[in-house]
Amino acid sequence: MTLNELMDYAISENCSDVHITVGTNLAVRRYGTLHILEDKPTAEESLKMIYDILSEENVKRIEKGQDVDFGLTYNDDIRLRVNVYHQRNNLAASIRILMRQIPDIEELGLPHAIKQLAEAPNGIIIVTGPTGSGKTTTLAAVVDYINKTQAKHVITVEDPIEYIYPHNMAMIHQRELGKDTPSYAHALHSALREDPDIILVGEMRDFATISAAITAAETGHLVLSTLHTTSAAQTIDRIIDGSPTDQQETIRQQFAMSVRGVISQQLLPTIDGQGRVLATEIMIGNNAIANLIRENKTVMINSSIQSGHKEGMHTLNESLLDLYRQGRISRKVALNASNDPQDFDKALGGGTQINPADANFIGF
Length: 364
Hints:
The protein has 364 residues and is of the alpha/beta class. The chain has 2 domains: 3-97, Beta-Lactamase, CATH 3.30.450; 113-329, Rossmann fold (3-Layer(aba) Sandwich). It is built from 15 helices and 13 strands. The strands form 2 sheets. A 7-stranded mixed beta sheet has the order 9-8-10-11-7-12-13, sandwiched between helices. The protein has a 6-stranded antiparallel beta sheet with strand order 3-2-1-6-5-4, with helices on one face. β4 and β5 form a beta hairpin. The longest helix has 15 residues, at 135-149. It is globular, with a radius of gyration of 21 Å.
């Protein structure tokens, strides 16, 4: 099997990821499940597949023992995010297949509140979730919505650049970490002198980036970013706890004033096994939420979200219940995804005890 044959197969089967490992079988991830393919190319064939997607510059880095992370376009219309790394004294590649076109907010199953957040004049919007939960695609849909509806200057800082945005109503400049800028924090500081309205930061990885993002929000910009957290409350705690102890109170106050919304999401397998569906939690940074953050009462965030339906808020459990009652996901999947499975079980009328049969997949 050639690289093109492998990619064409993965795309035709709606796979999200392809894995090439020198010396063993090929693998793909489809609807969240990893499948080991029967095809086992020779070491030389696997190595050729990997080298076929490397630029001369990346070949040099690989041969120096480095790993490489980059984006590229396949067949002129499909974006790929590629990571080539060393393992067991050999090479392996992980290839993420992005959607052929940037989907609309509605296509992704995101609630209407996302559009309202995208129209905020300033502040911070954070999309959170585990790896592979579609955070990049959600941000892409938000930027695409802005591009189609607002005359704004958007600067993105990505590692690597994934979706490509043509100029529409907005003007969009995309910067890649390691090529166009040395770090997220450096790019954020630089962006403040580049007349942006909106800044997309691929990930808030460290305190320098968090601090720079909050500063950008405070100076009148809308900042979009991601974190690997699973709920709004956990997101707030991660941002505060990730700051130096002597600066946590300052960051808490600043974040309380600047947060516009947190979108937490998971992609879950459908009950028929033929796709995945999006479950979300939406927190809007209203006065009540800001006060809870300011007073270090994040344990009460969930209750505030539950009482904020009129503003477009909902908890993850409420989203999971809707999907379960619509027959789109199984109870097992919903319980596994829930950050409060006992509350979910209670809402179904199952009482406060978890079914022992479910214990092995929810961590009990």
